[in-house]
From TrEMBL:
Chain ranges of the Histidine kinase domain: 8-107
Protein name per its UniProtKB record: histidine kinase
Pfam families referenced in this protein's UniProt entry, alphabetically: HATPase_c (PF02518)
Lineage: Bacteria, Bacillati, Bacillota, Bacilli, Bacillales
Gene3D superfamilies according to UniProt: Histidine kinase-like ATPase, C-terminal domain
Domain of life: Bacteria
Biological source species: Siminovitchia fordii
UniProt cross-references to PANTHER family, sorted A to Z: SENSOR HISTIDINE KINASE YPDA
The keyword Glycoprotein is annotated on this UniProt entry: no
EC main group: transferase
Reaction catalysed by this enzyme: ATP + protein L-histidine = ADP + protein N-phospho-L-histidine
InterPro entries membership: Bact_2-comp_sensor_kinase, HATPase_C_sf, HATPase_dom, His_kinase_dom, Sig_transdc_His_kin-like_C
Amino acid sequence: MLIPPLSIQTLVENAIRHGVLKKIDGGTILIKVVRFEEHSEVIVQDDGVGMDEEKINEVLSSKPEQSRGIGIVNTNTRLKQMFGTELKIYRVPGQGTTVTFNVPHKK
């Protein structure tokens, strides 16, 4: 399976910086890959403070040159270019954030 370079690292760094480090008692990050017939889903989940809806929309609609933090924006752009897919971000305020993306299997 071909995964864009630094995509998982970028998501983990973001989960650390903006999720678990903002909690007094820290937190946990889960990295998981689930294989399906046509694709695999990459999941990075934290139990940090959670992203707000405005930040999620900003990240997913920004262009790399518009954003101060470009890691997630660049990852999303690469996924669109390589696979025609993009990041999906789910959040529960105060309980964490889950970021997923799908990678099609080579035929």
